[in-house]
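Exercise 7. Predict the structure of Phosphate transport system permease protein from Corynebacterium poyangense.
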Amino acid sequence: MTYSFPSAQRRSRPAPSSTPTIVPEPDPGPLPEHSLHPTRGVRRIGDRVFSGLSLSSAGFISFIIAAIGVFLLWRAVPALSNNAKGLVGFFTYSEAWNTTDTSAMYFGIPNLLAVTVMISLLALVLAMPVALGIAIYLSNYAPKNLVKPLGHLVDMLAAVPSIVYGLWGWQVLGPSLKELYVFLHAHLSFIPLFATYPNSPSFDTGRNVFTGGVVLAVMILPVIAATTREVFVQTPKGHIEAALALGATRWEVVRMTVLPFGRSAFIAGGMLGLGRALGETMALYMVVSPSTAFRGSLFDGGTTFATAIANAAPEFNDDLRAGAYIAAGLVLFALTFLVNALARGVISRRKK
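Solution. The predicted structure, encoded as tokens:
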């Protein structure tokens, strides 16, 4: 049998593929931005306009505050230069304020500062516990159908004109506190805060620092209560529900979750109320008997920065006389600005 072998093995060719070859198209490059976001140009213009207006408003407010400070300083410098007690005496001289003779003026702010701070701090001490109780009740205990009416009622206290508070304090509150004043004086007169002096206001009228502090406490109460309540209601619900699930009582929930969460807001609200109290004029003008000599008693009369300026309005026809009171106003402006700045700082830190 004869076998034949091929001289060369035929190479196999790959079968043609049934799938067509896809040739990629050239990259056209990125699409124009306006085709992807047809309204972005409009938005950018709106954002720029809004940002510009916001920046202008903030700058305008800052300019106004700075202009007020510069004006007060500009008007106060000539009077301070003519003060017989000098610049140091302006902060240390506590005797009578005398600007009648502009060639020999002598004036100082220690008494004004002491009365202003004492009345404001007394108002703060009286208002803060009550405001805290109101905020806790409205945010955690009050029925839902009473929260809004009671909240509006508290907020309405801030809308009452200060002259109405002054009339109420003068005609109603002061005489009504006579028995309390007699009791405190009888049992605590050994403490300088509750002592009386020969020219102290009568207990029958009640026109003293104590009455002024009570009136101011009512006036700043809604500011503190509203600020605190707004933060208390933002306490995370998960924290409250977790505490209740662990068997905590409602008061324990408030003490362990709500109060720690809103502590800084409560402090900030108190500082905002203090800023309001420092500059109050009309109510204290009517409630507190004016006196240039203050000896640190709650039953004494006194003059704050604001009431001193209001009392001296007839003297403002002379630049030097007006400048003496403008210098006192400059101190009040700086004090109020500092207190409000601290309050805003506390609130900003809490938001972060």
